[in-house]
């Protein structure tokens, strides 16, 4: 696998401004539409988070932002959203964690392991090469693009496999965010149950905010917690794949993995997850004043809307055709299987 280029220096403020302003414009439009909904219908049927994604996708479909916008949109989609997720740690109510039950952590680990096996099996049955099947399985079962990027060097996946897997999850992830809340009335899920279900199925940590916000604060808190616990499984999974890999081969049973290398710790446990857990601990200890909690919630909300706009601007719906039919089928079927497994865990643990 070719070596990835060294990270570029942090962009300067002038380089960031065009993209950040573009995302801010999309975010303001989303907030304005939400306000209009509330005036016309008495409530917002589509939250600003979801509207920001939709507007961003619409803009991207009509116009592809040039190079000068890239630094700011990337910064908004990644760094600002990571800050927003970290700030959410201060909003986690310890009672919410306890209400989920002690078996939830073990259950999440079991879901990830079972989903990995099922997803890999689906990929192989559909004729995907071992490495590609493993990339799709890790992306679906753990945390989307982050899991794909962390797993690729360990199993010796080439650039084409990684690009195909990431191209599809970028689009499918947004579709999941938009469609998942529609399952609440169909499946008869409570706010707590939906939070667990969303946390077990949504691809990326940031996307959990948009997927759960339409249902309520409890779903946001539970969903974020479950998703973060699921992300923490990335470290053990990558280490296990590295130990299973044969010399000169890969964990998926392919050949030619001589370029394997173990990803750095910061990729396995991102800084914003540690920050989230630290703030959640401080909240549980009662050392964060109420004024600071209110400010953190407001800041997290604003940053998230801006970042969802950046996420929409980064989605090219034409990428679906580039991923290939077998990859598409494997990802969709694996996601459906993950949803069934997640619902099974909810019933098994008796989460109400």
Report on the structure:
The chain crosses the membrane at residues 12-32, 44-63, 104-122, 134-156, 162-184, 196-216, 228-247, 268-288, 294-315, 327-349. Belongs to the UPF0324 family. It holds the Pfam family Cons_hypoth698. This protein is mainly α. It has one domain (89-308, 317-349). It is built from 17 helices and no strands. It has helices spanning 13-41, 48-62, 67-88, 94-100, 103-125, 130-155, 159-179, 183-187, 191-201, 205-212, 217-231, 234-244, 265-268, 271-285, 290-313, 319-323, 325-349. Helix 1 crosses helix 2 and helix 6 packs across helix 17. The radius of gyration is 20 Å and the shape is globular. It starts with 12 loop residues before the first helix and ends with a helix.
Short note summarizing the structure:
The protein has 352 residues and is mainly α. Helix content is 76%, strand content 0%. α1 crosses α2 (48-62).
């Amino acid at each position: 696998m070719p070596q990835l280029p060294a990270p570029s220096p942090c962009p300067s403020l002038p380089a960031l401004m065009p993209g950040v302003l573009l995302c801010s414009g999309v975010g303001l439009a989303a907030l304005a539409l939400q306000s209009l909904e509330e005036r016309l219908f008495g409530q917002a049927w589509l939250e600003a988070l979801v509207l920001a994604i939709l507007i961003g996708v619409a803009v991207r479909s009509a116009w592809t932002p040039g190079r000068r916008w890239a630094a700011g949109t990337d910064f908004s989609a990644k760094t600002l959203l990571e800050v927003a997720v970290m700030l959410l740690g201060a909003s986690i109510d310890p009672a919410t964690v306890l209400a989920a039950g002690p078996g939830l952590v073990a259950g999440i680990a079991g879901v990830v392991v079972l989903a990995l096996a099922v997803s890999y099996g689906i990929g192989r049955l559909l004729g995907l090469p071992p490495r590609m099947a493993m990339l799709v399985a890790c992306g679906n079962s753990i945390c989307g693009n982050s899991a794909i990027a962390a797993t690729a060097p360990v199993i010796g996946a080439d650039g084409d496999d990684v690009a195909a897997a990431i191209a599809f999850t970028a689009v499918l992830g947004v579709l999941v965010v938009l469609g998942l809340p529609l399952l609440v009335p169909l499946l008869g899920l409570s706010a707590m149950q939906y939070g667990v279900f969303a946390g077990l199925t949504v691809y990326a940590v940031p996307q959990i905010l948009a997927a759960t916000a339409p249902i309520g604060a409890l779903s946001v808190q539970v969903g974020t917690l479950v998703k973060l616990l699921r992300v923490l499984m990335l470290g053990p999974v990558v280490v296990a794949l590295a130990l299973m890999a044969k010399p000169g081969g890969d964990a998926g049973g392919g050949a030619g993995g001589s370029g394997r290398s173990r990803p750095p710790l910061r990729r396995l446990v991102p800084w914003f997850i540690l920050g989230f857990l630290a703030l959640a601990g401080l909240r549980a200890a009662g050392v964060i004043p109420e004024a600071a909690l209110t400010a953190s919630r407001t800041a997290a909300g604003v940053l998230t809307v801006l970042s969802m706009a950046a996420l929409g601007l980064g989605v090219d719906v034409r990428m679906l055709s580039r991923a290939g039919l077998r990859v598409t089928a494997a990802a969709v079927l694996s996601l459906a299987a993950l949803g069934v497994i997640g619902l099974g865990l909810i019933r098994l643990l008796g989460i109400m």
